[in-house]
Design a protein that fits this description.
The protein is an alpha+beta fold. Helices cover 20% and strands 43% of the residues. The chain has one helix and eight strands. The chain has one helix at 2-28, and strands spanning 36-42, 46-52, 59-67, 76-81, 89-95, 97-98, 110-119, 124-133. The strands form two sheets. A five-stranded antiparallel beta sheet has the order 6-4-3-7-8, with no helix packed on it.
Length: 136
């Protein structure tokens, strides 16, 4: 009789700890969200991105640059200030402005695009580079 009660008590305690552990993992999931940015498309004047960042990451801007894959400097630059960083996925369209002395970007051109989530100290929190064909 004593052995049965001890087994039941151990099973209840194990169940309680398992439930508490599961609750902690589920509650911590948004806090563990990874800061990411993904280039989803580009035109000669904009770059479309999907991004996710947590407020604790300190992201202040999304910065973009575009240029020929073998170029030594970008042909166009752009940024969006104060993106929404709440741990959920968002989309943004970043306007591009031609760099000084560079020819305007053309639809159909193959370009290397670089996009980054950047903090107040100009440190990249997360970034991505892709080679895409610019569309209209």
């Amino acid at each position: 009789m004593v052995t049965t009660r001890n087994c039941q008590r151990s099973a209840r305690i194990a169940t309680v700890f398992a439930a508490m552990g599961a609750a902690l993992v589920l509650a911590a999931a948004p806090a563990l969200a990874e800061d990411t940015v993904d280039i989803t498309g580009a035109t000669p004047s904009t770059v479309a991105v999907s991004y996710n960042c947590d407020a604790a990451a300190g992201v202040k801007t999304i910065q973009a640059m575009a240029g020929e894959p073998t170029a030594e400097r970008p042909a166009a630059l752009g940024s969006q200030h104060n993106p929404t960083c709440d741990g959920t996925r968002h989309v943004a369209t970043i306007p591009l402005t031609g760099a000084t002395g560079e020819a305007p970007l053309q639809s159909g051109a193959v370009m290397q695009l670089r996009v980054a989530l950047v903090d107040q100290n100009d440190i990249v929190v997360s970034g991505q580079a892709k080679v895409l064909t610019l569309t209209d």
